[in-house]
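Kindly draft a sequence, keeping tokens residue-aligned:
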Amino acid sequence: MQTSATLKPSDTLFHSVLRFITGDEYKTHHCSLYEKVGWPQLSVRREQHCIKFIYEGRLDRLPGYLTCLLNIVTGTYNTKFQDCQLCYYFAPLAF
């Protein structure tokens, strides 16, 4: 998982590109830049990408180069519905 320290430089660069595209000054807030171009914020795009990744993995539609790096773990609980999967997540393989 990326930390805010590694994401901050990429966010700053992206905001500078948005200022160049829109022709706005340096002091323009990034929220208004996103509104002008009609794009979602980078944090929203990262979250959507993560959700899509989990969805694609759930449907077994991930590319082979990613599937071989992941250990798919399912968790079940004793309930009256024995086939109920309550937890499905990806655990990285230990090297």
